[in-house]
Structures are given as C-alpha cells and as structure tokens.
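Handout, section 3.2

Students often ask what a structure token actually looks like in practice. Rather than define it abstractly, here is a full record for DUF3726 domain-containing protein. The first block is the sequence as you would receive it.
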Amino acid sequence: MSHSLGEVEALARKAARGGGYSWGMAEEAGFAVRWLCAHGLDGCGALALLLDSGAGACPLAAGTGFADDVARFAQAAELGELNAPLLLLPFVAQAAGRLGGTLTLTAAQVTAVTNGQHTELSAPMPARAAVTITRGGRIKTPLPTTTRATPDASVWQKLTTYAARTYAPESEVSRLSGAGAGLTDND
C-alpha cells in the first residue's frame, strides 16, 4: 500500500516514541524515515529493524551528534558499529549540505555518497555494521526522489504496533471525563 511522506513521518515519530525514544529523538526518527522514503529507500524497514534490535549503538543519536557538530569534522569520522546504519544517511546528507561538499558514508562494503541534494547508494545497507564518514566522493547515478512510500505491509504493522504503545488505555474514568462516546455509545 502507498502512503504519503507525511503519514510515514507521523507513524515513524510515534513508533520511535513507543519504542522508548524521547520525543526529541522520535522527531529525528520521523525526519530520517521520511528522508529515506523520499529517496526511494526503505526507511520504515530501517526503523523497524532498529526498534527490534534493542541494545547497540543508535544511528539516530550518532546522526544527530554528527550533524550538530559537523563544523569540527576534519577528514574522517569512525562511528563504530551501528544498528540500522541506513538511518544515519539523512543526517550525513544534512551535514554535507551545511559543508557545501560531498560526504561518503561507508558501512561494511556499502558506500553512500551525498552532497545534501543528491545521493547515491552502491548497494543495500547491512543491518549492522561499523560506519565511517569521509569527506569527498563522486555521485554518478543519484537516487530518484518520490512523494509516496510503499513500505512492506508487515513492517507498517510493526511500526503501528510500536506507535500504539503511546496511546492511553481506555477506562471508565476516561470515558466519564469526556473521552470517547461516554457510557452510552449506541451508534
């Protein structure tokens, strides 16, 4: 099924929050998933992978830290092993735009080159890998952009399940205080 990028971003934010991230980091997850989907990549799958992985280094935290401190970036940054390293790519693109040049993200044998506007990916990103970011790189065949996302139905359901953890449970007290249809729901 096809979803708008706004729907994808909203669900990603709620799913990240339901997965235990702060609202601020959940906002970053929404940004990253939307950016990936807009570039034809499986942002929803990457977030589901991250939320299911539990322990390990987080690409969202690494990405926000890198993008925020890009002015101090010299020639290379070794970020260590990250879960779902694809989620780092939007932050690297953001940093490349700020620097006004290209950056190359390498995870295992896979490279992604971006200048902030255009991005090229050599192969699908691994589920977990040591990541290095270097200055430079050449974009030969940029990824096409899109305005719709078509995540796998099972991945969408998984994110919906994580998002549901953010909802308050219904109770008689909440119904009496005005939530829902009250006690006389006869529609």
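Discussion prompt for tutorial groups: The radius of gyration is 19 Å. How would you have guessed this from the sequence alone?
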